[in-house]
Amino acid sequence: MTVLGQWVLVLACVLSFVSAVKYFQAASGVRRSPATPRMLMTISTALVLIASALLTALLLTHDFSNGYVFGYSDRSLPLHFLLSTFYAGQEGSFLFWALCSSLVAVALSGFARKRGSEPEVMAVFLLVQTVLLGFTLAKSPFISVWEMYQGIPQGQIPPDGRGLNPLLQNFWMVVHPPVLFIGFALMAVPFSQAIASLWREKFSLLPEQSLSWTLMAVSVLGLGIMLGAYWAYGVLGWGGYWGWDPVENSSLVPWLIGIAMVHTLVAQRRTGKYVRTNYILAVVAFLLVIYSTFLTRSGILGDASVHAFADAGAEIYWLLLGTMIVIAATGAALLVKRRQALKPPAATSGWLSRELLLAAGAIALLLSALVILFGTSLPIFSTTRVEPAFYDATNLPLAILMALLIGLSLYTQWEEHD
After folding, report:
1. Closest listed residue to residue 183, CA positions, set 153, 212, 217
2. Of 299, 280, 93, whose CA–CA distance to 197 is shortest?
3. With CB atoms 3.0 to 4.6 Å apart as the test, which of 69, 82, 386, 400 could cross-link to 77 if both were Cys?
4. 136-194 pLDDT, tens digit each
């Protein structure tokens, strides 16, 4: 099943890419109907489901000829912990993320089809899905134990596995990671809608279709963050409900950007303002999802030298870095190209308005995200480490400001526009 699983993933990745290309052709007018790319997307999703089922079967049958099964499970694990080993390691977590993303793709396809934006939105989303499947190929859970662990003699199957880390043998391990990965998968939807809107010059697409997806994404991601914080507080002993650990911070930052986008999307739908802001936030939010993965998965925040990435982790390191560069460059290029078309309407009312206060609240959220991002990323560029007191001192005034703005906004009105 190990070899079969690897080939299933390869085929899923290829079909996802072909589907994205054909959706691109449909959006560009080369093809009239998106029926073919839709079918290819469905087959790719089915293949990801098959790959996930194969890995689950390997875990449940204790097939220790598979390196991932040997590395993260053993015969003594209860069923719920055995199932949670699916996403306990880097390889399995990438597959689980791709699984969540493929299911989101099916839902997004139906949503966009009803609103006339399927070809362009799905072309972008399936490129994201192809990249995620590329991660699973670079760090595949379908590798033999002899390839993954050089010290085990060829052909000799270990009698038992190395087991799950004792700190992960907790109820919240069953719940927290899946919720978080669903949130990550959903964050790709506003990004795809933003890029599709800029590409096809359908500027009403983002405000009309993204708010519900953005609300869903930040709700699920926020729930995942809360569950992780409770787990850390109750079990890991990080010194409080929120310890400002880099793993915590890396998922908090895109969530803060997403919350800011909810505010500015509401203002744009009501008044037409903050058009450029919403495109920037949609791109930056997903960019930071990939950046959070880069921080926590590439090993760059570990004690080892950057030169250590030249061995087993080099593929993921460069894939994540390249993905971030492509996302940033694509978003920036499209925003520059469409800058004239993204001018907001002129306001006709006074300076103190509800959307101004919403924007001020969004700025406070962005400042908080910037401060947290700075502290979390500092070890990459310096030997200096930021203490939790730094985050407390910088975020407390911003939290007070946000509370005041929420109260004041209740006494203001929306601007009127020509």
Report:
1. 217
2. 280
3. 82
4. 999 999 999 999 888 888 889 999 999 998 888 888 899 999 999 999 999 999 999 99
Q: Is the pTM value of this prediction over 0.85? A: yes
Token pair 């809107």: residue: 197
Instruction: Please state, in angstroms and rounded to a whole number, the distance separating the CA atoms of residues 391 and 254.
Output: 16
**Side chain identity at 23, as an amino acid letter?**
Y
Question: Around Cβ 417, how many Cβ atoms within 10 Å?
Answer: 14
Which of 4, 245, 21 has its CA nearest to residue 141? 4
Asked if 264 and 281 touch (Cβ cutoff 8 Å), the reply is yes
Asked if 276 contacts 267 with a C-beta cutoff of 8 angstroms, the reply is: no
- Helix, coil or strand: residue 347: strand
What is the three-class DSSP state of 156?
Answer: coil
Q: Chain-centre distance of CA 394, in angstroms? A: 26
Judged by DSSP in three states, 66 sits in strand
Consecutive H or E run containing 285: helix 275-297
| Residue type, position 416, single letter | E
| Phi, psi angles (nearest 5°) of residue 17 | -70, -45
